[in-house]
Write a structure and sequence with these properties.
- By secondary structure, the protein is of the alpha/beta class.
- The chain folds into 5 domains: about 5-115, Tetrapyrrole methylase, N-terminal domain (Cobalt-precorrin-4 Transmethylase, domain 1), CATH 3.40.1010; about 120-225, Methyltransferase, Cobalt-precorrin-4 Transmethylase, Domain 2, CATH 3.30.950.10; about 230-320, MazG-like (Helix Hairpins); about 365-435, Helix Hairpins; about 435-485.
- It contains 19 helices and 10 strands.
- A 5-stranded parallel β-sheet has the order 3-2-4-1-5, sandwiched between helices. A 5-stranded mixed β-sheet has the order 6-7-10-8-9, with no helix packed on it.
- A hairpin with an 8-residue loop joins strand 8 and strand 9 (about 195-200).
- The protein is elongated.
Length: about 475
């Protein structure tokens, strides 16, 4: 089988080049370099080492992924032609070398990994950094915010130039403060070329000497922990733990239910107001409800926050086969049709009976809307009043039962009040009105009128000799005329 020997050129000059690597370079095998832009290459030329490089791919390909794929393909073809070739990469063959990983995944060639010293040793030496105490090592060409752990020292390798530095900076700024001090290390351990500079994060891509030998050190940042979802979950767990907040410790899924609805409405209100800062704040309050419910579920051994994330992730993938699968959606309508079809299938599985009169009912809405939907579904099955008179009669009946319940205690009153509200929603259905919109309009009408009452009361506070309640009632009757004439 064609064979590719892979060796590392070390982090810098000839002194860090392993002896066995040097011997292979002198063995007479065809030599290919991932890049000739490396401090040891001029010295190899002086020693008479002949080679070809793949630097041209960095200019011709649009992404690093394509670059490394093309390099692996070219090497495989060379090995098939020549039988045995030598591939030399900066540092160590298995440290931040995607082209080598691509070769290892190719069943058409045998890959033999040789020696090499990675950049990690000289970088840690330059920073006096001991990795045993904790260290995250990431690739600057494919950095994602989800990879970051702001409480752990982090090295970002392969910050090849200002374009990569800009992407790295923007990703880091999703987690770290803009002013967070980071250290740029170039050509660590290379005599006469090593350069170390501490700069604020936002200035990272202002440097004009960044190249393929550049590594970024990001020290831990306590201020960044507030942006870490894991840390937020730990804060909520602390609130619920012994010695935490008495109010938070007392809460249950049921007691938190009103707050979930309240916070969702606050988010909607911020959207309506077009207030971006308020929206960010309200989204945080809504996310707190998610964290609290997940923590309670974890304490009861029912589910964890990880389960919430997993189910959401699986659902997003499952309902977007046109993104993560083989289906196609060229328009919004086609995407919605795919989503709805998948959701309907899931709903049938969950209910266990597609023909159920509750199939597809969306419970996650205001109670008045759910009641309206329930009544419409029941009406389609013949369970309905013959005319509007029956609904009005039922409302009077429920009011009478509420009056009777007043003598029996609060529990019965709550039940009868629910019946009244349910009947009022039924009345709205018969009138083809949306109870939510009707009530929202009444809320606004009340605000207009009571604003008038408050203004009149302030202006006339010392000018009237009638009782306070009588005065307010008079203002209210005035408001009913004054405010409605403006709308």
């Amino acid at each position: 089988m064609p064979t590719i020997h892979v060796v590392g050129l070390g982090p810098g000059d000839l002194d860090s080049l392993p002896v066995s690597t040097y011997r292979l370079l002198q063995s007479g095998m065809p030599v290919y370099l991932r890049t000739a832009v490396h401090p040891v290459v001029p010295q190899l030329r002086e020693l008479g080492v002949k080679f070809e490089s793949f630097d041209a791919f960095y200019e011709s390909e649009s992404t690093f992924e394509h670059v490394y794929r093309s390099i692996a393909k070219a090497l495989t073809e060379a090995a098939q032609r020549r039988g045995e070739v030598l591939y030399a990469v900066p540092g160590h063959p298995l440290m931040a070398e995607q082209s080598v990983q691509n070769l290892l995944a190719d069943a058409h060639v045998e890959v033999k990994i040789g020696p090499g010293q990675s950049f990690l040793d000289p970088v840690c030496t330059a920073l006096s950094l001991d990795p045993i105490n904790g260290l995250v090592l990431l690739d600057g060409t494919s950095l994602r915010a989800a990879q970051l752990a702001p409480d752990i020292p982090t090295l970002v390798a392969q910050v090849f130039g200002r374009a990569v530095a800009t992407e790295v900076k923007l990703t880091l700024m999703d987690v770290y403060p803009d002013e967070h001090l980071v250290t740029v290390v170039r050509a660590a351990g290379v005599t006469g070329q090593e350069r170390i500079l501490e700069v604020p994060l936002y200035q990272l891509d202002h440097l004009d000497w960044l190249d393929h030998l550049t590594t970024l050190y990001v020290p831990p940042c306590e201020a960044a922990l507030a942006r870490d979802p894991v840390m937020l979950a730990e804060l909520v767990a602390r609130l619920r733990a012994p010695g935490g907040c008495p109010w938070d410790r007392k809460q249950t899924h049921q007691s938190l239910r009103p707050y979930v609805i309240e916070e969702a409405y606050e988010v909607a209100h911020a959207i309506d107001e077009g207030d971006d800062q308020a929206l960010a704040d309200e989204l945080g309050d809504l996310f707190l409800q998610v964290l609290l419910h997940a923590q309670i579920g974890s304490e009861e051994g029912l589910f964890t926050l990880g389960d919430v994330y997993e189910r959401l992730g699986n659902k997003l993938i499952r309902r977007h086969p046109h993104v993560f699968g083989e289906e196609k959606a060229r328009t919004v309508e086609e995407a919605q049709a795919i989503w709805s079809a998948q959701k309907q299938t899931e709903g049938g599985e969950e209910l266990g009976a597609e023909a159920s009169w509750l199939a597809g009912l969306r419970w996650g809405r205001p109670a008045a809307q759910v009641a309206m939907d329930l009544q419409e579904r029941a009406a389609k099955l013949g369970f309905d009043w013959p005319d509007l008179t029956g609904v009005v009669t039922k409302l009077r009946e429920e009011l009478t039962e509420f009056e009777d319940a007043q003598r029996e205690g609060e529990g019965r009153m709550s039940e009868e009040l629910g019946d009244i509200l349910f009947t009022v929603v039924n009345l709205a259905r018969w009138l083809s009105l949306d109870p939510e919109q009707v009530l929202a309009a009444t809320n606004q009408k009340f605000v207009r009128r009571f604003n008038y009452v408050v203004e009149r009361a302030v202006n006339d506070m010392d000018k009237s000799d009638i009782t306070h309640l009588e005065r307010l009632e008079r203002y209210w009757q005035e408001a009913k005329i004054a405010t409605e004439s403006d709308f």
